[in-house]
Every structure is written in C-alpha cells, then in structure tokens.
Structure to design on (446 residues):
C-alpha cells in the first residue's frame, strides 16, 4: 500500500532568531527553496514561507527521518538555538498559530494572512503542494480568518510598518517632519498610511517601479511624492525619518546616502536588510532593525493576552478536528485496501461458481445476479465489524490492529507505518462495490 507520510517542519523566526539568522535561512526565496527540497530523497511535497521575521519550510515524507534529513539544508549556518524543528502535529498547530497572528512580532497582525496565501501559491507553482499540505495550509488560513472574525485579536494592532512609525515617534518629534518610505509593497503601504495619521508634513515614497510608488502616494492625504530609488541620495538628506521595506536582495541605502543628513532616524524592516548597518556609524544617524521593534510590540502583546487565549481555544478545536479527519483518512485507506482485497477474492470465486453452475445447465441472468448479490452481501456482512474496529483503532492510534487486519485479509498490504503522525491519501477501491454500513470515505472537515 502506497502511503503518503507526515509533515516535518523547521522554523527560524523572530522569537528565537536574530534578523541575520532569519536572513541566513531558506536560501534564495520560496520557489527555489521548494524546488530544492523536492529534489531531496523521500520528499513528496514541500511548502516554504519567508517574511521579514520568519523563514520556515515544511515537507511531507513517507519516513519522518527523511523529512528531518531533507530540512538539514534549510538553515545549515544558523545556530541550533535559533532553529525550531516540528513534527507532524506541531507543524499543523504552528501553521494555525502563524495564520492567526499569534507567532507574529506584532500579535494578531493581518499582513501574515496575505503572506501565507502568497507563499502557498508560490509553493504550488514550484510543484510543492499536494493533498497533505493543501489540507494543512487551507486549514491554517481558515483558522486565521476565524481568529479575526470571532475575536478582537487584530483590533488596534499595528503592523511592522506602523510599529516602525510608533518607534520613530518615541525618538523624534514628527511635527512638520519629512518622512521617506522606501518600498511600495504591503509593508510600505502600511507604513505610509500610519505616517498619514501623524503630524508629518511630507511623505516621499521611493520604489524601483515608480508607478507603484505613485499608487502608495495617492493612498495618503499628507502631501506626498513618488520617486525612483535612484533619487534616494537627493531625498534622504532632507528627511527626518526613513522607513525601508523593499524586497531587494542588496542594500538600497548605503552610508553615503546619510553622510550629510543631519539628525535622522532610519528603521529597516526589510529582510534581507535594506540599509547598510555601516550607515549607523555616521554622526546623527540612529538606525533600528526588526529586533528593535520588539519593545514596541511587547506593549501591544500585553494588551492582547485575553484575545490570544480565545484564539488558542479556536486553534485547539480546529487542530483536534483536522487530526481526527486525518485519522479517519488513514482508517479509510486501510478499509479501502481491505475491501479491494476482498473484492478480488469475491470476483474470482463468483466467476468460479458461475462457471460450475453453467457447466450443469443453462444459467439465467437472474440466477447469475443472485449469486453476485449473495457474494456482495457476504463481503459486506463479514467486513462490517472489522471496518468499525479499524476506525476505532485509528482513533486510538492502534496501528498494530490495523496492520494485523491488513495481513489477515491481504498479505500484500503489510507496509503501514508505526508512527502516529502519518496518514494516507484517500483510495477509491471500496467504491467499486457496495460500501459497508458506515461510509468508507469522509470529506475533510472545513
């Protein structure tokens, strides 16, 4: 019996790792990471997500040891304490927590939902998404939406972009100041919108693609201007605040950009870094990165504790549902295999009986149908009790009972794994004939 295995995951995130360690993990983006993992022995599916405060990957393998080996290449240069390794159940729960915003630097932030969806699509484009990870990520997104619809986990919660503005407001007086937002992505947009609610008098949006910068500039009421990245040497010296959040693989702000800037606060919320750390050596320059936002976000986290507990209860409920659904799938796979084996025996014996009856005289269609109906009824009655027992065994992770049943009914099916975290894809062998009293297959809970 061919069986799809369990999920194995690895996480390098802000809770355990520094910005440099997050940047060092994961390689050259989601698609490249997924493609690399799929090329490794035993990996059937792969999913990766990389944001400014996390770099994570998940694989599906028949043997959990293969998953662990495949993920060794994900963060080889990162210290052990910064790397969190996850088994099947931990991976499912972690993805739900990530989607709900419980694992975000800013508790409950909404941006992660879009990032998770984008990572899913990129992983899918790279050929990494199969039935196991599809169910896992889809469930995580469902939980994330429930968390925001049924609780106030995101009420008043800031994004990294708005957290950067809050941090800047504690350092300088923004009244009549000039701010430069580098990057026209989601974080840049959120930073610009948050700046729009401050007393700054001007917002400059810089981006490699100017039309995208113009779109962000048009979203704010504060006087704004869109410029290309090439204009940064001219606009940064006149600014009081710089917030950078591009997707560039190389720094876009170097020390020369701030050489004559005077007093200026620079906040780098990009990963990899947008601002060369050497810029902080220039007189009057104060540079913060993602790590520095922890203090700002800690206060928000304290105010969200009650809502977080409610979200955790939702996760517990949904995790139990998906685990039970996976167990049913595993039992259904074993039951389908059992019925397939019985059906082969039934077909062989019916043909033999019909041949003997025909040798004794003419056999009518009605008589032939009676023989076949009797054989189907015998199979259904004989396998009804084992079917219920197999479902009970799967619910209790009693794989010895399932293995024994498979060996008794069909010695070919003797490869069911020991691990409780593994589960099998649906098979349709039982659909070839009348099903047992309880449906052999059940859909995954929404």
């Amino acid at each position: 019996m061919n069986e799809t295995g369990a999920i194995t995951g690895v996480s390098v995130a802000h809770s355990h790792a520094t910005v440099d360690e997050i940047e060092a993990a994961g390689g050259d983006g989601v698609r490249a990471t997924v493609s690399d993992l799929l090329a490794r022995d035993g990996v059937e599916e792969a999913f990766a997500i990389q944001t400014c405060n996390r770099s994570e990957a998940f694989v599906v393998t028949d043997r959990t040891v293969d998953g662990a080996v495949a993920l060794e290449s994900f963060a080889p240069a990162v210290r052990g304490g910064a790397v969190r390794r996850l088994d099947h159940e931990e991976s499912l729960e972690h993805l739900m927590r990530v989607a709900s915003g419980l694992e975000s630097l800013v508790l409950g932030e909404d941006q992660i939902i879009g990032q998770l969806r984008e990572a899913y699509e990129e992983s899918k484009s790279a050929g990494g998404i199969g039935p196991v990870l599809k169910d896992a990520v889809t469930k995580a997104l469902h939980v994330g939406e429930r968390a925001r619809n049924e609780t106030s986990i995101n009420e008043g919660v800031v994004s990294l972009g708005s957290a950067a503005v809050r941090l800047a407001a504690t350092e300088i007086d923004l009244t009549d100041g000039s701010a430069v937002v580098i990057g026209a992505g989601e974080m840049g947009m959120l930073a610009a919108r948050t700046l729009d609610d401050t007393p700054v008098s001007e917002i400059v949006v810089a981006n490699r693609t100017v039309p995208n910068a113009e779109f962000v500039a048009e979203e704010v009421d504060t006087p704004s201007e869109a410029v290309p990245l090439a204009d940064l040497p001219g606009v940064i010296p006149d600014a009081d605040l710089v917030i950078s959040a591009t997707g560039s693989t190389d720094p876009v702000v170097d020390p020369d950009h701030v050489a004559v800037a005077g007093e200026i606060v620079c906040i780098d919320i990009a990963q990899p870094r947008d601002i060369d750390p050497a810029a902080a050596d220039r007189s009057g320059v104060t540079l913060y990165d993602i790590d520095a936002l922890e203090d700002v976000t800690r206060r928000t986290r304290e105010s969200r504790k009650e809502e977080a507990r409610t979200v955790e209860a939702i996760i517990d409920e949904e995790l139990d549902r998906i685990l039970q659904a996976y167990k049913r799938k595993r039992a259904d796979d074993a039951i389908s295999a059992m019925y397939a084996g019985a059906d082969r025996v039934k077909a062989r014996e019916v043909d033999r009986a019909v041949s003997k009856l025909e040798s004794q005289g003419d056999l009518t269609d009605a008589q032939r149908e009676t023989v076949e109906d009797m054989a189907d009824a015998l199979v259904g009655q004989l396998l009804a009790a084992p079917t219920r027992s197999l479902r009970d065994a799967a619910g209790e992770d009693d794989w010895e009972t399932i293995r024994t049943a498979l060996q008794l009914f069909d010695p070919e099916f003797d490869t069911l794994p020991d691990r409780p975290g593994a589960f099998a894809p649906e098979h349709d062998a039982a659909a070839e004939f009348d099903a047992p009293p309880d449906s052999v297959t059940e859909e995954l809970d929404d």
